[in-house]
Amino acid sequence: MEQRYATSPEHVPGMDTAELRKRYLVQDLFVDDEVKAVYTHHDRVVLVGLSPVTVALELGTFPEIASEYFFEHREAGIINVGGAGTITVDGTEYALATGSCLYIGRGARAVVMASSGATGGADAARFYVFSAPAHTAYPTTLVAAGEGIKRELGDPLTSNRRTLNQYIHENGVKSCQVVMGVTQLHPGSMWNTMPAHTHDRRTECYLYFDLPADARVIHIMGEPSETRHLVVGNREAIVSPSWSVHSGVGSASYTFVWAMAGENQAFDDMDGFPIADMR
């Protein structure tokens, strides 16, 4: 498990491109037949990528979380960003098509992930795990792709028409603090969030996927008065601290997973910034 320590806005002006990428961009989460994990000290979030190409993979514990098993003190939302697959939680199997979400609550012990009939890496399931500490147990719950609460946002005239699917949130699947969903851009739209915003009470992570191999997303981060950008590829994640804006524009169509943990679960708890006020 890779450790990433928390940063403050004062650090950003002195960072070059290499350091910005090292601290906020998560690459290589999805390696065939491996479990890859990153612990960020922003709200104690753990990101995990599991790629069961030829063998099933278990989400076990890590020394860094000081637990007998992964979910002893944690909960997680899991989105399948690859081909069809299954997640077995303490003997109960759940089938996840691309874009489906499984919430696993505190106390689950044996969690095993597998691909469904994959014959190669391109067909394999790729499970993206967003985990945060949990104070109590909520039941494991599956939400099929497209079955969450939908919110239509943006406008074609500003190139940000998008469908936001809310899966784990205060009016949907119950959790202690994880909030999670998937946003899909409409044809011809490339901006995912503009005007941009912060939410000073929650850390948010983006995972970009369904992006062609030769395309990239230009992700904007930092304080509104001191922004920077990161060039992001397919199935790469961004750690966005509570003080940072998080917005992006792609060179091709894409989808992204958004997930948050922190003080509350209110979707509208955010502070917007008109683009004319950003620097």
TrEMBL record:
<dbReference type="InterPro" id="IPR007045">
    <property type="entry name" value="KduI"/>
</dbReference>
<comment type="pathway">
    <text>Glycan metabolism; pectin degradation; 2-dehydro-3-deoxy-D-gluconate from pectin: step 4/5.</text>
</comment>
<keyword id="KW-0862">Zinc</keyword>
<keyword id="KW-0479">Metal-binding</keyword>
<feature type="binding site">
    <location>
        <position position="199"/>
    </location>
    <ligand>
        <name>Zn(2+)</name>
    </ligand>
</feature>
<dbReference type="InterPro" id="IPR014710">
    <property type="entry name" value="RmlC-like_jellyroll"/>
</dbReference>
<protein>
    <recommendedName>
        <fullName>4-deoxy-L-threo-5-hexosulose-uronate ketol-isomerase</fullName>
        <ecNumber>5.3.1.17</ecNumber>
    </recommendedName>
</protein>
<comment type="similarity">
    <text>Belongs to the KduI family.</text>
</comment>
<dbReference type="GO" id="GO:0019698">
    <property type="term" value="P:D-galacturonate catabolic process"/>
</dbReference>
<dbReference type="GO" id="GO:0045490">
    <property type="term" value="P:pectin catabolic process"/>
</dbReference>
<dbReference type="InterPro" id="IPR011051">
    <property type="entry name" value="RmlC_Cupin_sf"/>
</dbReference>
<dbReference type="GO" id="GO:0042840">
    <property type="term" value="P:D-glucuronate catabolic process"/>
</dbReference>
<feature type="binding site">
    <location>
        <position position="197"/>
    </location>
    <ligand>
        <name>Zn(2+)</name>
    </ligand>
</feature>
<feature type="binding site">
    <location>
        <position position="204"/>
    </location>
    <ligand>
        <name>Zn(2+)</name>
    </ligand>
</feature>
<dbReference type="GO" id="GO:0008697">
    <property type="term" value="F:4-deoxy-L-threo-5-hexosulose-uronate ketol-isomerase activity"/>
</dbReference>
<dbReference type="InterPro" id="IPR021120">
    <property type="entry name" value="KduI/IolB_isomerase"/>
</dbReference>
<comment type="function">
    <text>Catalyzes the isomerization of 5-dehydro-4-deoxy-D-glucuronate to 3-deoxy-D-glycero-2,5-hexodiulosonate.</text>
</comment>
<dbReference type="InterPro" id="IPR027449">
    <property type="entry name" value="KduI_N"/>
</dbReference>
<feature type="binding site">
    <location>
        <position position="246"/>
    </location>
    <ligand>
        <name>Zn(2+)</name>
    </ligand>
</feature>
<keyword id="KW-0413">Isomerase</keyword>
<dbReference type="GO" id="GO:0008270">
    <property type="term" value="F:zinc ion binding"/>
</dbReference>
<dbReference type="Pfam" id="PF04962">
    <property type="entry name" value="KduI"/>
</dbReference>
